[in-house]
Batch of 2 targets.
Target 1
Amino acid sequence: MKAKLVLLALGHFAVFAFLTAAGCNRQPAAPAATVPPTAVEQAAAALPSWNDGKAKQAIVNFVARVTKEDSPDFVSPAERIATFDNDGTLWAEQPLYVQFLFAIDRVKALAPQHPEWKDKEPFASLLKGDLNGVLAAGEHSLMAIVASTHSGLTTEEFEKVAKDWIATARHPKTGRLYAEMAYQPMLELLAYLRTNGFRTFIVSGGGIEFMRAFAEQVYGVPPEQVIGSSGKLKFGLRDGTPVLVKVPEIEFIDDKDGKPVAIQKFIGRRPIAAFGNSDGDLQMLQWTAAGTGTRFCLYVHHTDAEREWAYDRQSSIGRLDKGLDEAQAKGWTVVDIKQDWKSIFPPARRGQASNARRPPP
Amino acid sequence: MKAKLVLLALGHFAVFAFLTAAGCNRQPAAPAATVPPTAVEQAAAALPSWNDGKAKQAIVNFVARVTKEDSPDFVSPAERIATFDNDGTLWAEQPLYVQFLFAIDRVKALAPQHPEWKDKEPFASLLKGDLNGVLAAGEHSLMAIVASTHSGLTTEEFEKVAKDWIATARHPKTGRLYAEMAYQPMLELLAYLRTNGFRTFIVSGGGIEFMRAFAEQVYGVPPEQVIGSSGKLKFGLRDGTPVLVKVPEIEFIDDKDGKPVAIQKFIGRRPIAAFGNSDGDLQMLQWTAAGTGTRFCLYVHHTDAEREWAYDRQSSIGRLDKGLDEAQAKGWTVVDIKQDWKSIFPPARRGQASNARRPPP
């Protein structure tokens, strides 16, 4: 799905020094006194994992403005569309995109049915744990992995495979379930926006069918509000029953320019708020910011090497370079994870470490 | 958008003899006594333009079953997805698809800026009112018309053009506004389903941006629940402002096999009810029917030459041939317009005839 990103990603596992981020809203922040006390109180209760600071204040001010009926900035609930990138914005994307880890596990699971893979690249390298060997074969090899692991299945078969994996697979570094690698402050933000009449959409480079397998359970975002990259589907009959089969052909990459295009196609309304963490989200934020009325754009800046990862301008995964400049120039809100987030991940379920496939660091 | 359909359509304006349709539900109809009186009463009030008969009874039985909490057929509101074709199912499609009439009017409106069209096909024929001449130039000529009238505009410019047209243009035969060519019984059905916790989606071969320009006003269906054929969009800057521009390239045809594919892509859930009127809707109904649990499939059969049009197996617009056979074989509900609909169109606004571009018949 995201061959180019994944290709780049595999080349650079290192994480990079963090930069301090300046956070501010596009619209001058209203004095705190103009925000009704109820909104402040509601936000304090709804966003416990956010430290008090510019980012939280900008969010609360924005929500208060667009939901106050007698405000000139009032937006009807139907137009309260908020779009979120997934990888690096709602859950961790280091050291590799989760979907690629899924594809690697699929190759391993399917290997017994494919004895020929032992001598065939990129599978041979991957099965030996040699990711550099996979990379050496180039983009074509990554497409072969995605094609072999994501296609040929019906949409229902794929959903089951993805759901089963998400329910049991664990992060290579933390040993947590992937659902536990979602960012607690962002889970609170999603719920806070929904409580205030927003509809929250995911608009991400990840595969649409893959993300739908967990988005409702993890984020409370139903399938029809998940937009992603997609492979082609083919309608046909299997034993007389209509099925949709995934075929190994990329249809759409929901990244960069693709994000506003997908928003227009799937939603048909311009978001009033957009949330991302990389240059791949920049066009979505630009499109959102360019609408009339009050708009809110936010970048999550990964600045916390201790509790999560620190990376931005030089990272091959989730590079935030042009976006950081534009956020600063336009006064978008930038979350400095180290400063703004009281906690990063939700509490882990019991027994996580003992089930970890790879030992935690 | 629908070049092939339109091509066929232009070749055959005649309407054909009607067939009597047998209507029945896929699941054996529950005895009337099992339907709570409240549901029957609610339906009587909600569906005043439907005659009492098999079709109305099948609708009411289905809704009662899936909404009754202690019923084994109960379906949670989140899964109550109903998909509707547009042309011929929600509004009239004779003598030509409305969107093609829109494109013709666009050529006329743009002609002063294109003096070269006077000598260039298919525009020359079209401007002389010679639709057969347009046809003679083949599919390519129709694509040229669509490209010249739908593309180059930003999505916002196109929306305005389409909304302005829909607000003023009138049907060539009846002199009615197109909003008044919607089927009153189907408007009632849409509202009845929504009252019962359904979300109603349009899944149609028409252009997605064109349909969104009127779907909320006419049908109460918001943009994010309208799925259709699409041309490509290009993201870019105009005078420093981000825009999405329609480019003359077809991206997706939402017809036949395309309908279940689009449903999966946009909604990610299988509908529990689907409504169509032509063979182009068959795969959507098959996909809907093949799900587990109680399902409802309905074909609108155009049998009323006097009050509307009568056409089915031989029609080049909205041909219903294989679909009619399959509906009968599988016991899907078939609406016989002549028998089942008390009235066809909503009351017309005053002054319609005097504003008609072409005299009513």
Target 2
Amino acid sequence: MKVGFIGLGIMGKPMARHLINGGHTVYLFSRSGVTQDMIDAGGKSCTNAKDVAHNADVIITMVPDTPDVEKVLFGRDGVAAGLSTDHGTGKIVVDMSSISPIETKQFAARINKMQCEYIDAPVSGGEVGAKNAALTIMCGGSEAAFAKVMPLFDLLGKNITLVGGVGSGQTCKVANQIIVALTIEAVGEALLFASKAGADPARVRQALMGGFANSRILEVHGERMVKRTFTPGFRIELHQKDLNLALSGARALGISLPNTATAQELFNSCVAHGGAAWDHSAMVRALEMMANHEVAKAA
Amino acid sequence: MKVGFIGLGIMGKPMARHLINGGHTVYLFSRSGVTQDMIDAGGKSCTNAKDVAHNADVIITMVPDTPDVEKVLFGRDGVAAGLSTDHGTGKIVVDMSSISPIETKQFAARINKMQCEYIDAPVSGGEVGAKNAALTIMCGGSEAAFAKVMPLFDLLGKNITLVGGVGSGQTCKVANQIIVALTIEAVGEALLFASKAGADPARVRQALMGGFANSRILEVHGERMVKRTFTPGFRIELHQKDLNLALSGARALGISLPNTATAQELFNSCVAHGGAAWDHSAMVRALEMMANHEVAKAA
């Protein structure tokens, strides 16, 4: 398949490489340039996103945030320009960035008007998941388009779900980030309470893992809180971006997310103390600062 | 073993029966009287808690709340009176109620002064767990006393942990209830966001179960929210009691639990709408009322 890949950051680079290794012709573009190792691996370097869209039948974008997607799709020398010059009917744009579900629907509508398909397919699993081709991929779009790009997703991830129509992938990713943040917060409150009350938080975590309170977060991030290993992992500044999507989305939709709001404030407090690059499990530090007590102190 | 069992409610009755069936001599007392079926099963009815403590070597209490434990232990004709008249040195008081970890330490100190041991051993698993002898039991106390009563716990539960010294069992139970309530809240916010944004919450739940956001709560209570099955289960009014232990404990300890506070307010809102006996997963209804949108509406 002729595949375009735009955005060769920490996530995008290993993903593009999996597609090349999977035997596809992969046209590459990145604002910071295409590195020589990607060309040596067999990738085709393009001068802009328009050039990528001109050459490829499926164009994947993997950039940081909503405005970046908008720029790469609809800006000067962007994907849309490449689709139109090519009379690109039937091409598929796949946005794997994590961005606003609401603006995603607008982007999709503009792409659809050009007789092209749009799939939103944000991922979870981070750098490790990207390198190991073990990403979870949450997709929104038509079943027909999803079926066409499924062979590409198979090279990138393991848990691949078509959640619903366009925007549903991004919506699912936001839901994921709400649950992850709020479960970190829950484990933080519980372990802080236990520690301050004089119990050993490591043994409390162990006891709770046998019951209804168990979760992947309690296992992985509960251990981080007890052992104080706050090297990322997933950086707080990235999770802040995701909770911003949740909170601005909630406002636009007219719903209230009280604990997401609190979790964001706790992240903000961490950043105020220099923690933008701490692992997101370090949210517990904001609770600890309020309480003037550390989870690990009682251990 | 000569065992006393005080409190024969929904939980206590099947638990006492397991001890009788396990071959122990079980002395029974309940404020509402000992029913004939328990006597037919082989239980020995006593006229008060003092009488139970006089006859038994291990005295188990299973009553609703902190003041109930205080009354049954130290009130007129209470356990303490039975321990002292009997020169009860070496007897063990096991409180399996879910009560304040802070007052538990005071109760234990008073019992210890009588040369008796005290173990706090609250459970999770509810009525089903009690009937099936599958309770999770979280214990605080000395290793020696814990070893002595372990054969009794084995007849009642499956996941039995000595978390630490006296009070650690109750502390662990409170931590458990914080995480359970806050994870329910997290799943509620996530599914409400997804539904209002136009995604099918059932498919979002399914997709999230494959990843880092997964938990027993997402599996069990996420399904309840989607299918609207809010028959208990575990009643909101009971979880309110537990979060009150968390919040009053936090205040006494000088720590802040912001999302536990919000979760309690959401439970309060459910109760205001007649939901004291709803399953605790119905906390999502309070979020739905604020948003004027139901999770299941988009499905």
